[in-house]
Amino acid sequence: MVANLATPETDKFWAEKIKEMSSYTLATYVKEFRKNENQAHFEMEIPAAPQIQSITIELDPKIADQLQKLKGQGNWNELMQKLLQAYQAQVEAKKPIPQENAKRYIPAKIEKYVLAKTNNTCAFPGCTKECKYLHHTWRFALTKTHDPDTLIPLCKSHERLAHAGLIENENQSPENWKIKLETDKNSEKWQKVDKWVAERYIGKRTIDNANNNAKP
């Protein structure tokens, strides 16, 4: 997966990632890394401009007719934007307050609100996998707070990449996120938390592999 990416300057980095990550997480990281490289090349060649995407959806005829009437003489992009804004406003109206000095368990109200924002889908840009973890962008081990604004639904691979310090702009809204090559956390405590999480995953994977190999 990394043979065409590694260079004499980065081979040590990729070797470490192979040791640290499961093959599934590594595949996701390589995919996102290639996407960033291609995007950077495109932006160098052609000035950035809004990109329009075509989406094909299957609808009940009655719903399709209602949408067509709502669109009227406007365009689909404007209608979809209005519908999204209405949905987001509905979700925001039910936003619970942060829970401070909390235990690890996330209250049901906060969990329901966070999952509703992405319809139980990973929030990383372009990812449509099912959410497996609610990720604290401000690490819970340091804050002891469940804040609905800093809890982000992620799939397994992107959650692992977050704790590896490989998501840029992690403390911003997920639409600003992208994969980065190196970790640059400024907080030593933050690094310790992520290192502990990463070691726990590696240890668990080693035990799982040993158990699988021991099976007849």
Topology record:
Elements: H1 11-20, H2 23-45, H3 61-71, H4 76-92, H5 108-118, E1 133-136, H6 140-143, E2 151-154, H7 156-163, E3 167-168, E4 178-179, H8 188-214
Antiparallel strand pairs: 1-2, 3-4
Task: Please give a structural write-up.
The protein has 216 residues and is mostly helical. It has a domain at 11-46 and 98-209. It is 51% helix and 6% strand. Helix 2 crosses helix 7 (156-163). The chain is flat. The model is unreliable at 41-46 and 205-211 (pLDDT under 50).
Write the H/E string, N to C: HHHHHEHEHEEH
Number of helices: 8
Q: How much β-strand is present in the residues?
A: 5-15%
Strand order of the largest sheet: 1-2
Helix percentage? 40-55%
Average pLDDT, to the nearest integer? Answer: 81
Calculate the terminal CA-CA distance, rounded to whole Å: 30 Å
Shape: flat
Low-confidence stretches: 41-46, 205-211
- Tell me the total number of β-strands: 4
Biggest beta sheet attributes? 2 strands, antiparallel
Rg over alpha carbons = 21 Å
Structural class based on helices, strands and sheet pairing:
mainly alpha
